[in-house]
Write a structure and sequence with these properties.
There is one protein chain. By secondary structure, this protein is an alpha/beta fold. Strand 9 and strand 10 form a beta hairpin. The strands form three sheets. The chain has a nine-stranded mixed sheet. A six-stranded antiparallel β-barrel has the order 5-6-7-10-9-8. It is globular, with a radius of gyration of 21 Å. The protein folds into two domains: 243 residues, QueA-like, CATH 3.40.1780.10; 79 residues, QueA-like (Thrombin, subunit H, Beta Barrel), CATH 2.40.10.240.
Amino acid sequence: MEQLRRSDFYYELPEELIAQEPLEDRSGSRLLVLDKRTGEVRHQFFRDIIDYLRPGDCLVLNNTKVIPARLVGVKEDTGASVEVLLLKRRGADVWETLVKPGRKVRPGVRLSFGDGSLKAEVMEVVEEGNRLIRFFYNGIFEEVLDRLGEMPLPPYITRKLQDKNRYQTVYAKYEGSAAAPTAGLHFTEELLRQIEDKGVAVAYVTLHVGLGTFRPVRADNILEHHMHSEFYQVTRETADKINAAKAAGRRIICVGTTSCRTVESAAGEDGTVKAGSGDTDIFIYPGYTFKATDCLITNFHLPESTLMMLVSALAGREHIMDAYAVAVKERYRFFSFGDAMFITDDPERSA
């Protein structure tokens, strides 16, 4: 296979197409339906997704919950402002964090947040300059964090989010993500009910999304990119639902790249998904053979990102680049709060 370059996944995006806030109606976003075999595209609304799902299909969603992981505080010794992003829990009250500005926040430095009800001490500097920090507080950490923390919106969203629940899926359950699995933001409880009533099996996996999702690919040769690691869990019930659909010749439709990465991490070479949990740093790019995923519901991704590489692996790079060019021309809304794409092997409506 020819060497893949980062620039192979670049496209021009006018800044005004970056969605700065969610639509009032979650399911009212536009939906670009892409036939991964032919590259044909169709234009719909997200609520129309039900027409493209068939009885017996298995829809896989990521039920992780975003925590208000951005803390703004001060260094106790100097009063200098500091921002801490919680990345991954490393112990009871110990978190791996990204600190800004990090240069002067060395081991031993003590921090204070908000009204002083949350304090912290930097323990050590770890990989990529991240800091291990131990927190001190009274009560329940999650309640303190909910009061003092902010949603860690991606850097391309410059407006303050009025309702932080809009950066959560309606089915978010298990806390641990520093970013939302954004393809799932389009679903409403009513739409999910309609999908189940149609005979579609709905299954949930958990993958806690790290900020590494937004880390740019710096290597020109994409194979030199070091993928971040994230915790995932697949329950026995979910594995059984996916495997039953597979055995019946039905489709596995993942909602979002995080669900896709989870399913592919848990699947054996024969496509059988195993229940269990662990850390995954799976990197999916063109040339990858999907073991369990057939179709994907996803948002529009940043140029040259690992997510662009994943969708190109499923639909073909040329089909993806052509579809993105159409989306730009048709003024679709891009990124976390933007519109959606359904990469399918059968673009015919079933209803």
